[in-house]
Amino acid sequence: MKKIYTIIAGLMLTASVFAQAPEKMSYQAVIRDASNNLTTTQAVGMQISILQTTATGTAVYVETQTPTTNANGLVTLEIGTGTVVSGGFATIDWANDTYFIKTETDPTGGTAYTITGTTQLMSVPYALHAKTADSITGTVNYTETDPVFGASVANGITALDTANWNNHTVDTDTQLNEAAVDGFVANNGYLTTEVDGSVTNELQNLTVSPIGDTLTITGGNFVLVPGISLLNFPPAPVIGDFINGGVVFWVDGNGGGLVVDVNDLSTSAEWGCDGTVITGADGTAIGTGAQNTIDIEAGCTTTGIAADLCANLTLNGYSDWFLPSINELTELYTNRATVNTAALANSGTALSESISVPYGAYWSSTEYSSYSAWGYYFNYGYSNVNDKYDTYRVRAVRAF
Questions:
Q1: HSE, side-chain direction, 13 A CA sphere, residue 165
Q2: Residue 128 in domain
Q3: Is the residue at 109 inside a domain?
Q4: Cα Rg for the chain, rounded, in angstroms?
Q5: Residues 246 and 395 in one domain
Q6: Are 93 and 83 in contact (CB under 8 A)?
Q7: Which among 52, 130, 170, 247 is placed 20 to 30 Å from 86, CA to CA?
Q8: Mean of the per-residue pLDDT values for the chain?
Q9: C-alpha distance across the termini of the chain, in Å
Q10: Mean pLDDT of 395-400
Q11: Domain assignment present for 80
Q12: 286-301 mean pLDDT
């Protein structure tokens, strides 16, 4: 029974990085039988012709090859490397006309070609024509518009500049590297490294007593400055003041402290990341809430949880709000009456002490375990460890 074969062909011209263009073109074809099955691992006979001007034009080059299909029915060959029947591949003038490639195939491996196809060569094969740039004939006229580089920065380079460039001398001035500079500074009594592990404990706060002309520095040292109390220094903040974006609920005695937002950010937010230990978020002391919040944001990607609400709050011109630690939250409970009065006076709401859900409880930023964290029941007046998936109230605080 006679078989009918079909092919799907593809032509590719491989560019070369060398000045001399390769005298060949890559060609691929997929051969299938009449049932559309691949003809695999079988030698096929092929005759390739390059036709000029039209699809039925004169063959300027003809060659034959006998490639073998692979397991996918694909044959791959390079036109220009087969057995030449007529013409010369290297002598084709690609730029002078239109060319077509004609393939004739015998799927049994002989020369009884039963499959014929003709395709016009488009722009890609004419990369072979790039080799003609090896030579130029005729007269080339070009007028140099700036023969002395008058418009170039090179115009200012003098013969002396060139001589100095080619005969420069080594700079003998004393130059210190980083280690030498550190040694020089240290030898003259200057600090070059942090010697006690803290970058903030050298900072000092000055406070002026309105009575007695006393100027006090952090740590309890003081000096009497006659008349200093008459200067217009702002008074030290006290609990209940509405400053720095919120209501003061704790002061450190040196002009700094903590303020709280006048409204809850949420009445039912989770602590978040139940079952996950958040490294670093276990600070309990006053002053640790900000770092707890940073660590929660870094270790828990869930949005809308208590710490995330505080960290993303921008209020009254401030964006450094955080979820208070358990001790900071305890201070807020201790001074809740004063805070509530100031909050209500500034269009806020009082801290909840309701016995209804969520029971007047507020989340702190202090983690207890992978499954629980500390909260504070404002209706009962005590702290408690709660499941992270419980939903409680959230109040943001910030330091000043």
A1: 6
A2: yes
A3: yes
A4: 43
A5: yes
A6: no
A7: 130
A8: 83
A9: 96
A10: 96
A11: yes
A12: 96
Tokens (6 digits) for 375: 């909260």
CATH of the domain at 74: 2.60.40
SS3 of the chain: CCCCEEEEEEEECCCCCCCCCCCCEEEEEEEEECCCCECCCCECEEEEEEEECCCCCCEEEEEEECCECCCCCEEEEEECCCEEEEECHHHCCCCCCCEEEEEEEECCCCCCCCEEEEEECCCHHHHHHHHHHHCCCCCCCCCCCCCCCCCCHHHHCCHHHHHHHHCCCCCCCCCCCHHHHHHHHHHCCCCCCCCCCCCCCCCCCEEEECCCCEEEECCCCEEECCCHHHCCCCCCCCCCCEECCEEEEEECCCCCEEEECCCCCEEEEECCCCCCCCCCCCCCCCCCHHHHHHHHHHHCCCCCCHHHHHHCCCECCECCCECCCHHHHHHHHHCHHHHHHHHHHCCCCCCCCCCCCCCCEEEEEEECCCCEEEEEECCCCEEEEEECCCEEEECCEEEC
322 vs 363: CA distance, rounded Å: 12
Q: Is the peptide bond before 358 cis (omega within 30 degrees of 0)?
A: yes
pTM comes to 0.46
182/68: higher pLDDT: 68
Q: Say whether both 60 and 126 belong to one domain.
A: yes
If asked whether residues 213 and 266 sit together in one domain, one would say no
Regarding whether 340 and 270 lie in a shared domain, the answer is yes
Q: Which domain, by its residues, includes 320?
A: 242-399
Please give the structure tokens belonging to residue 149: 């580089």
| pLDDT score at 15 | 36
Contact assessment for residue 100 and residue 50, using Cβ atoms and an 8 Å cutoff: yes
